[in-house]
């Protein structure tokens, strides 16, 4: 059976039964095509029954040596294959998962890059630097929604007016990553601006909050270009800032202000606290300054005994 045929069934399963986002399914498809390219390079027929564990081990080496991918990227691609072959196994197309015995490279711990508060202010002010264009308010609200809610790119794209409760002052993220809805409180100023933005349009509850100039729901690529334009206007080019770094900034800045890690986990929609704990390590200088606020360290008697 051709791998491609089984993979089409797999993507249908992800969309219809697992309710995976379009972006996630696209990522799986990209990883799968990379694997097909490897098979073609090795002159291996892309038949499901042909795939063995040694082939997948060779693929991991290929990703590392030929494509120079990081351990984290290789782990992700290997996990994609594991999920695919697990599906093929449960559907009884094959008897065992050939990717399961392959040990992934050790995960490299990378501290998340975040946008410091002073630079974030510059970015949020950038839409007003280009004059009162017809999209300046929309763009300003897009950046502020990222900054003050920590939502993911696709979650922002999916937002509809029914998801903003102006009476309660909350934003509802519907079926975020992991198929879990969550509520995020909105700052009063952002709430007022969103209400004003809504009043300027003829919309229904199911109208997307952020639309293109043609009235359609925004898509990832134009949203990325919008973000990059304002990064440039704010003078922040070359620092590796992306839309996802806005999420890191939201979590890190809250952490720096003393918000506990379990609260941040709930706001971000992390299923596992481990994913949130990385923000504890993002700013060693801030943590060092924080412990120096310990009341005993301000005590003259304590200070004199340590000198």
Provide a brief overview of the structure.
The protein is mainly α and 307 residues long. The protein has 14 helices and three strands. The chain folds into two domains: 88 residues, Tyrosine recombinase, N-terminal domain (DNA polymerase, domain 1), CATH 1.10.150.130; 173 residues, Intergrase catalytic core (hpI Integrase, Chain A).
Describe this structure in words.
The chain has helices at 3-16, 22-41, 53-65, 71-90, 117-125, 136-149, 153-158, 188-199, 220-233, 243-256, 261-268, 273-277, 284-291, 300-305, and strands at 164-165, 170-173, 182-185. The protein is mostly helical and 307 residues long. It folds into two domains: 3-90, Orthogonal Bundle (DNA polymerase, domain 1); 117-289, Intergrase catalytic core (hpI Integrase, Chain A). Strands 1-2-3 form a three-stranded antiparallel β-sheet. Helix 1 packs antiparallel against helix 2.
Keywords summarizing the entry:
hpI Integrase, Chain A; 2 domains; 3-stranded antiparallel beta sheet; disordered C terminus; 3 strands; mainly alpha; 14 helices; DNA polymerase, domain 1; globular
CATH superfamily of the largest domain: Intergrase catalytic core
Rg from C-alpha positions?
Answer: 24 Å
Given helix and strand content, the structural type is: mainly alpha
> How many beta strands in the DSSP annotation?
3
Number of helices: 14
Largest sheet: 3 strands, antiparallel
CATH architecture of the largest domain: Orthogonal Bundle
- Taken as a percent bin, the fraction of beta residues is under 5%
Q: Overall mean pLDDT score?
A: 86
Could you tell me how far the N terminus lies from the C terminus, measured between alpha carbons in angstroms?
76 Å
What is the third-level CATH name, the topology of the largest domain? hpI Integrase, Chain A
Note the run of SSEs as H and E: HHHHHHHEEEHHHHHHH
* Helix proportion range: 40-55%
Top-tier CATH class of the largest domain: Mainly Alpha
- The quaternary structure here is single chain
Outline type? globular
The spatial strand order of the largest sheet comes to 1-2-3
Query: How many independent structural domains?
Result: 2
Q: Which consecutive residue ranges, at least 5 long each, have pLDDT under 50?
A: 303-307
């Amino acid at each position: 059976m051709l791998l491609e045929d089984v993979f089409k069934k797999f993507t249908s399963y992800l969309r219809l039964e697992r309710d995976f986002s379009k972006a996630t399914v696209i990522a799986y498809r990209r990883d799968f095509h990379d694997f097909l390219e490897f098979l073609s390079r090795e002159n291996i027929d892309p038949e499901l029954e042909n795939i063995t564990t040694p082939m997948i081990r060779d693929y991991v080496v290929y990703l590392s040596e030929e494509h120079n991918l990081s351990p984290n990227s290789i782990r992700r691609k290997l996990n994609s294959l594991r999920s695919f072959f697990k599906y093929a196994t449960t559907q009884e197309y094959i008897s065992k998962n050939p990717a399961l015995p392959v040990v992934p490279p050790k995960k490299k711990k990378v501290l998340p890059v975040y946008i410091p508060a002073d630079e974030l202010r510059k970015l949020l002010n950038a839409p007003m630097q280009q004059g009162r264009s017809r999209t300046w308010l929309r763009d300003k609200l897009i950046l502020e929604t990222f900054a003050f809610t920590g939502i993911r790119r696709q979650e922002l794209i999916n937002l509809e007016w029914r998801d903003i409760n102006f009476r309660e002052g909350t934003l509802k993220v519907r079926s975020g990553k992991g198929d879990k809805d969550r509520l995020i409180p909105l700052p009063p100023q952002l709430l007022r601006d969103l209400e004003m933005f809504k009043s300027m349009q003829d919309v229904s509850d199911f109208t997307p909050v952020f639309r293109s100039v043609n009235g359609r729901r925004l898509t990832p690529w134009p949203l990325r270009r919008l973000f990059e334009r304002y990064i440039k206007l704010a003078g922040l080019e070359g620092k590796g800032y992306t839309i996802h770094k806005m999420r890191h900034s939201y979590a890190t800045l809250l952490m720096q202000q003393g918000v506990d890690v379990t609260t941040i986990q709930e706001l971000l929609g992390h299923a596992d606290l481990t994913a949130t704990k990385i923000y504890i390590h993002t700013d060693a200088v801030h943590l060092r300054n924080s412990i120096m606020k310990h009341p005993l360290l301000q005590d003259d008697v304590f200070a004199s005994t340590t000198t």
